[in-house]
Amino acid sequence: MAKPPPPPPKEGGSYWCKDDIHAYLPTKLTKLTGTSATVSDLTTSRTFTVPAADVLDEIHSVEHLSMLYDDLVKMDEVHKASIIDNLRRRCASQKIYTSVGDILIAINPYKMLPLYTPQVIEDFIRKDPQDLYPHVFGIAMDAFRSMRTEDRCQSILISGESGAGKTEATKQCLHLLSEVALGDHGESEMTSIGELSGKISEGELKT
Length: 207
Known about the structure:
The protein is built from five helices and nine strands. The protein is α+β, with helices and mostly antiparallel strands. It folds into two domains: 14-63, Myosin S1 fragment, N-terminal (SH3 type barrels, Roll), CATH 2.30.30; 95-206, Kinesin, CATH 3.40.850.10. The longest helix has 16 residues, at 166-181.
C-alpha cells in the first residue's frame, strides 16, 4: 500500500528546507505563494526566499535541533534532512564519528584533530565501552574482544567514496590493535604482535 503524501506546508510551521551550502536547513515558513516561499533559518534567524518545492519535511520537535545525537538510533525524527543536519553539526563540533547502532559513520574533516592521542587509545582499551563515545577505536576493540571471546576471525568492513577517509580509518584500526598487542593495557591474553598478526589474516581488514 502506497504511503500517503505529507500534508502541504503551512505558514508558521517549521520545515526542513534545501540549501546550497548545508544541504538542508531547519526553517520557519513565514510566507508561501504558489511558486516561492519565504523562510527564516531557525539557527541564525536569517530570512530568505526559496522555491516552494524546496520546503520539505515538517519539523515536529524544534527543541531537538539543539541536540547532537551520538547514535542516530536515538533520534525521534529520522529522515535524510535530519540525519545530514545532525552529522554536519557534529562534524562542526569536531565530532566526526557517529553511530547507527553497531555501524560507525565517519566524516573526513580534512584537517588534523586530536582524536588518536595516547590517552584516547588508553581510554578505549581500558574503559567500559558503555562509557565511551563513537570512535573508530571502538570498532577495532569490538572486533578484538569478539575475536578473543568467540575464538574466531573477525572482519571490519570499511567503505566509502574516494577521499572519504577509508585509508585513515584502516590505519587507525591497525594502530589500536598494535597497541593492544604490545600489552600493558590489561589485555594480557594477547601480548605480542606476532600472536595478534596470526589472528588477523590477509584480507580481513579491507578498504
